[in-house]
Every structure is written in structure tokens, then in C-alpha cells.
Amino acid sequence: MENNSFDCEGFQVALLPSMYGVEFIVALAGNVFALWLLVVREKRNWHTGVVLSCNLAISDLLYVLTLPLLIVYYSLGKHWVFGDALCKIERFLFSCNLYVSIFFIMAISVNRCVAIACPFFTRSYVEPAQAKVVSVIIWIVVGVISCPELKFASVHFNEHNGNTLCVSSYKNESPYFYYKIFLAVFGCVLPFVVTFTSYCVFISVIWKNVSITTLEKRKIGLLVGSVIVLYAISFVPYHILQIYHLYQKINEQTDCWVYGMYQVSKGLATLNMCIHPILYMALFDSIRVACCGKSSEEKQLEVIRK
After folding, report:
1. Distance between CA atoms of 44 and 118, rounded to whole angstroms?
2. May I ask the CATH architecture of the domain 2-294?
3. Where do the DSSP E strands lie in 98-249?
4. What are 111-122's pLDDT values in tens digits?
5. Could you give the C-alpha distances from 131 to 50, 52, 153, 202, in angstroms and in order?
6. Which residues make Cβ contacts (< 8 Å) with residue 236, sequence separation at least 6?
7. Dist. CA 211–CA 140, nearest whole Å
8. How far is CA 102 from each of CA 160, 178, 195, rounded to the nearest angstrom?
9. Hey, what long-range contacts does 210-215 have (CB within 8 A, 24 or more apart)?
């Protein structure tokens, strides 16, 4: 299997440096801009959604700063020159970013659902302090479930070409395989069920509420659409292909097509950092107006007020 994997790596080395390079530029610019707008424009209205979104943006920025390491790694033909410690840190931060993203999107979705389905309860009882507690819990839980990456990840010498590899499992894949199944169920399937249920509830509320404006419906549509894209492109394919790839390695099977698609899914998994600013546009008018300008409906309301 090792020889065959080596034969399949040409596609990976050709694809990922440019893919990570584009994602680094877009994600860094988008999340720095979004975080600045959240802190500056929304500081007078520091509600639960702002707290959760700031944490999501901070998570993206923490991981996006490690992408140059991967760009160099794949540009050198999978040769890791940064040492064992940074290899472990990069793998740990990737896991943290992926699952922090999923759990904060779940929290944002539940928060929006409660705000729309129970507006009076939200105004009376839901406070930013509670969102901060939820944020701390998410960071702790994700940190704990990501800690095994520090054990599994390490550098290894590639006897085929003399390169130093940074990999999460090298010889014994079985423990890592079961660990990844746990992460897929706890870190992806469970949050997806909660997120999907939240959207079903507040879409049904919106459908029955004739007082919701067209602009609000567009914002909700953008929010739902961006989350669907995140799961369809970034989260679900990565988990499915990763588990199937590890299953093949354990059973000493070879399929360059599966290996290639798994490499594409790795690039798409980090694409979530580029999609998050679109989600912020659906949540906050200040970010939407700064990026796209005011809608015709908002302009008409300004004229009427004058």
C-alpha cells in the first residue's frame, strides 16, 4: 500500500499548494475584515450572535496562519522541514479549526432558531454572557477531542524519495481509523442533526409569518444556503473520503481515484474559512452593507424616513 500511495501522490503535490495559497489569501483577508467589522461596527450591539461569530473568525485566523507551512510542504514534494513539534501543532490546529467551525455553526443556527421562534424569550433571557460560556465549552470540548492528533501526528522518513513526511498515522492505522470514526459521528453527524433541526424549525416559523420582510427572508436564505454549502462541500465529503481512505489502507487496498478525491476533500475542508464571511453577511447588516452596499428596500426606507 505504501508503494501505491507514493505512486498516487503526483496529483496531490500538483493541486494542494495552489489551492492552499488561494484559500490563505481569501480566508485571511475575509476573516480579518469580518472580525474588524464585528469589533468596530457591532460593539454597541454586542449580542450573542456577535460573540459566537467572533470566536468562529478567531478560529479561522489561528489555522489560516499555518497554511504557509502546508504550501511549502507540498511545494517541496511532501518534504516537511519545520520539525516534529510544528507537525503536531499543524495537525492539532487543523482538527480544532474544523470542529470549532462545525460546533459554532451549530450554536449560531440554534441561536437564530431560538431568536425567530421565541423572540420574547430571547430578549428577556438570552444574554451575551451565556454565549461566552457556550463558546468556552465549545473550545474546551474541541480541544479535548483534538488532543489525540498530538499523539498520532509525527514526522517520518520516506524511504522511497528521502523526504521527511508530516503524517497523522504511518504504520498502525487501526487506532487512528476508529478515532476518525468517533470524530465523524461526534464532530460532524451530531452537530449536523442539531443544525438541520434548527433550520427546519425556523423555516416553518418564517413560512407562517407574513410580517417578515423580503430582506429578512433573503438574509435567512443566505444563512441557510451558506451552511448547506459548508456541509455539502467542506464537511461531509472530507469525513466520508477520509474514513474510506483509511479503511483501504488498513485492508491494504489501492485506489488512486479515492486517494485523489481524498486530497481534493482536504483542500475543500479548509475552504470553510473562505465561506464563513458569507455567513457573517447573512447575520450582520454592517458586514453586508460594507461588502455589497444597501439593498433597494433599505434605500426606500431611508427615503420614507427623510
Report:
1. 23
2. Up-down Bundle (1.20)
3. 154-157, 164-167
4. 888 888 887 777
5. 9, 7, 33, 20
6. 188, 192
7. 40
8. 37, 20, 9
9. 213/297, 214/297, 215/295, 215/297, 215/298
**Count of CB atoms situated within 10 Å of the CB of 72:** 15
- Residue 213, classified by CB atoms within 10 Å of its CB into exposed (0-12), middle (13-18) or buried (19+), is exposed
How far apart are the C-alpha atoms of 135 and 75, rounded to whole Å? 36
Give the amino acid at 31: N
By C-alpha distance, which of 249, 273, 251, 275 is closest to 262? Answer: 249
Residue with cell 474559512: 273
pLDDT, tens digit, for every residue of 244-303? 999 988 888 878 888 889 999 999 999 999 999 888 877 776 676 666 655 555 455 444
pLDDT higher than 50, residue 2? no
How far apart are the C-alpha atoms of 103 and 92, rounded to whole Å? 16
Measured CA to CA, the distance from residue 169 to residue 241 in angstroms comes to: 16
Q: What cell does 86 get?
A: 510544528
Cα separation, 62 vs 120, whole angstroms: 36
For residues 115 and 122, the answer to whether their CB atoms sit within 8 Å is: yes
Could you give phi then psi for residue 23, rounded to 5 degrees? -65, -35
Q: Report the distance separating Cα 293 and Cα 240, nearest Å.
A: 39
In Å, what is the CA distance from 99 to each residue of 26, 92, 187?
A: 20, 11, 6
CA 274 to chain centre: 9
